[in-house]
Amino acid sequence: MKFRSQALLLCLAASMALASDYVEFSVVERIRFSVPGNWPVISSKSTAEKTVFAFQIPNRADKKTSDSSNLVIVASYLSNPQEREDFEKKASTIENNATEQKIVEGWRCSTFTGTQKSTQYVVWDCYRTVADCGVKVRIAWPRLPKNPRDYDKQMEAILSDFLTSVAPSKPLDPTSKGSVLRNEQPR
Fold first, then answer.
1. What domain range includes position 99?
2. Residues of the chain with pLDDT > 70: what percent?
3. N or C: which end of the chain has fewer CB within 10 A?
4. Does residue 134 lie within any of the structural domains?
């Protein structure tokens, strides 16, 4: 019996360790951010001026549908004062039906709902200058009948955690073979 209890605790600890598995990304040694390891990268593109990553956020309710929950981060290098001013101007502009919301200190965010095909989506756009980058984050999720009741709150918490993870980059280890680091410690 003692062995079974220990085995159960070991399995539980292993599943908790997997749940806290994050992947940290560093963008051209300018900014870094982390996402859960189970978020597939659905798109990425990087140049010296701009980097874009798009992730799909797992949601059991969207299985066998064309809908999905997604997060996109766009980091644009602001190489001069005019580019910085242009980014700040764009960041302060709110879409017609959006409302400004406070979610994380230092970020300017707004939210609105929109429709894709026949599905209503909640969309958040957030802006901030980090190091020499103008950073835009967009998260969108469908309002599906099978979503948990508190899905909007869960997604807002996910957004808050993500925004909190965006920070100036640490210099990469020159012996490293890439710019993606795996961090298996909870944040």
1. 37-169
2. 80
3. N
4. yes
23 part of a folded domain: no
Read off the pLDDT of each residue in 26-31 and give the average, rounded to a whole number. 83
Annotate 116-162 with three-state secondary structure: ECCEEEEEEEEEEEECCEEEEEEEEEECCCCCCCCHHHHHHHHHHHH
Q: Decide if 122 is inside a domain.
A: yes
pLDDT band at 14 (very low <50, low <70, confident <90, very high): very low
- The DSSP output letter for 21 is -
Structure tokens at 163: 């925004």
Tell me which residue of 75, 76, 134, 127 sits closest to 100, measured CA to CA: 127
Contact by Cβ (8 Å): 126, 159: yes
Distance CA 77, CA 81 (A): 11
Q: How far apart are CA 132 and CA 32, in angstroms?
A: 12
Q: Residue 37: is it exposed, middle or buried by C-beta count within 10 angstroms (0-12/13-18/19+)?
A: middle
Taking 80 as the threshold, does the pLDDT of residue 79 lie above it? yes
In a domain, 11, yes or no: no
Q: Which distant-in-sequence residues (6+ apart) come within 8 Å of 38 by Cβ?
A: 21, 58
Number of domains making up the chain: 1
Find the range with the poorest average confidence among 8-12, 51-55, 127-131, 134-138.
8-12
